[in-house]
Input
Amino acid sequence: MECPKCRGRMRTFDRNGVHIEQCDNCRGIFLDYGELETLTRMESQWAQQHYAPPPPAHGGPAWGGHHGGHYGHRRNSWVGMLFSS
Amino acid sequence: MIEELARLARRDGPVTVLKQTRVLVVRAGDVVVKAHPPDTDEHALRARLDAAANLPGVMLPPLGLQRLDGRLVTIWPAGEPLTMADVDAGTTPWEEGGRLLALLHARRAPAGLPPAGGPSRLPRAMADLAAAGVPDQVAAPIRAAYATLPQVREGGALTHGDWHLGQIVRHDGAWLLIDPDDLGPGDPAWDLARPAAWYAAGLLDPRDWERFLTAYLAAGGTAVSAGDPWRELDGPARALTVQLAATAVATAARAGEPPDDAAEALVSACVRIVAATEAET
Output
């Protein structure tokens, strides 16, 4: 198909069931009916699964570890460690 | 000993044992009485109590020093400690901790005060690791990380020496630091190193760590640079990681239990310290 904006050639991509046309010339993207909603839904699902706090403003050490994000739920020696020498 | 300590408090009211380890800490009425370990250096303790008495708004001032059965006993106003419920509720006053340490570090240590006790805890923890019968495969990464640690930097700032969340209390509505037993001149980054180690091990929520460090810097804290705090923190945080790992696995071994998640996280951090050191050289 032809780009409605610049008359360039549109190339078709399929990504996770979403049908996307992108113009080779102006890089503009054309979505079929309902596909913007599909993308929005997928984006919010991804964000829920992969939500992580923003990287710390003050950096970290080269040997820093992974932060799992379950800090409030650890019922082990960790909470006791907060209070002991 | 508990009853005799409570008598030293000269207060009516219920008597509660708050801690019974190398020290014995008893609360009686609105006073807390602490029996120090039998080998405590009296001269050093007196110097530290004097320093604590001269830090209004920063440290809880002592009420007195006595002797009981050859042990030194200090008497304190009872403050309201932070509890695990506060941590669970997310109301930990990280900002207050950072602010109080910044105020402390702004002071020069008075002459005659022995060095801060922070760095001396590490060899003790390693000795404890050796004595606790920890399996070699568990202890090996901790020993390997210990061998890579940089030298302790000297410093003249007044340093708490043993800071954690048990070392702040609310008294007359204000948060104050308690326990000057390790107070002295030193590298003040060691006071931030325990939370830094928790953070680097993935145990402390990065948001809590940022609250603490941001408040420390906002209050004029001098231990680290605002632009690159890990330049000063890295060495002490590595040391505390090794110390905390050694203590955690030794405690588990003594209880006849395998290391739990927190201990494993600290041992993993030791492995990463060794790898980072190899990458640096």
Q: What stands out?
A: Chain B touches chain A through 51 residues (CB under 8 Å). The first strand of chain B starts at residue 15 and ends at 20. The mean pLDDT of chain B is 94.
